[in-house]
């Protein structure tokens, strides 16, 4: 697997990536159901691929040598407080449970350290046990918010 920052020319790859996601994986990432047509909308994909690297970083986990495909996507978005950011990751069903999500989070944590970000948070649904394990293994503390369907994962760098 190769991990690299997302680029504008990745839009077709990102569209194919979304075609391979199950409804459950989409729900676990976005916390609601989204139709494929919404996820592969040109304007949405353009926003996801054309990013402001001063405010965020998105990395792709690519597999395959001759014709690469996206196995996972990780995104880190800085908050208005310059030393904080929010992180999110999604991996296609075919490549889940292979350490790809873990490696994407590791890469984003390294980027955050280089950017002098001190605190990273992520929201993870109670039912998303796999991502909870990833966050715990990487030093995040999970906090339950009463009345919320999600936990907050937090790490201080």
Task: Write a concise keyword list for the protein shown above.
157 residues; alpha+beta; 7-stranded mixed β-sheet
What's the SSE blueprint?
Blueprint: E1 2-5, H1 11-20, H2 23-30, H3 36-39, H4 42-49, E2 56-63, E3 69-78, E4 84-91, H5 100-114, E5 119-125, H6 129-137, E6 141-144, E7 150-156
Parallel strand pairs: 4-5
Antiparallel strand pairs: 1-2, 2-3, 3-4, 5-7, 6-7
Describe the protein in words.
This protein has 157 residues and is of the alpha+beta class. It contains 6 helices and 7 strands. It starts with a strand and ends with a strand. The mean pLDDT is 93.
- Apparent shape: globular
- Beta strand count: 7
* Overall pLDDT score: 93
Weakly predicted, low-confidence segments: none
SSE order, as H and E? Answer: EHHHHEEEHEHEE
Describe the biggest sheet? 7 strands, mixed
| Major sheet strand order | 1-2-3-4-5-7-6
Class by helix and strand content? alpha+beta
Helix percentage range:
25-40%
Q: What portion of the residues fall into strands of 2 or more residues? A: 25-35%
Oligomer kind? single chain
Q: Kindly report how far apart the N and C termini lie.
A: 26 Å
Total of DSSP H or I helical runs spanning 4+ residues: 6
Gyration radius over CA: 15 Å
């Amino acid at each position: 697997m190769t991990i690299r920052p997302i680029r504008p020319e990745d839009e077709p790859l990102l569209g194919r990536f979304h075609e391979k996601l199950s409804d459950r994986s989409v729900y676990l990432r976005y916390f609601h159901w989204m139709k494929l047509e919404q996820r592969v909308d040109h304007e949405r994909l353009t926003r996801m691929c054309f990013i402001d690297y001063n405010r965020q970083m998105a990395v792709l986990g690519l597999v395959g040598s001759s014709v690469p495909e996206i196995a996972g996507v990780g995104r880190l978005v800085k908050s208005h407080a310059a030393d904080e950011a929010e992180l999110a990751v999604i991996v296609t069903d075919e490549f889940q449970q292979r350490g790809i999500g873990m490696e994407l989070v590791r890469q984003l944590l390294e980027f955050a350290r280089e950017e002098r970000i001190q605190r990273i948070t992520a929201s993870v649904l109670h039912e998303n046990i796999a991502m909870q394990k990833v966050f715990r293994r990487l030093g995040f503390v999970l906090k339950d918010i009463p009345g919320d369907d999600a936990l907050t994962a937090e790490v201080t760098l």
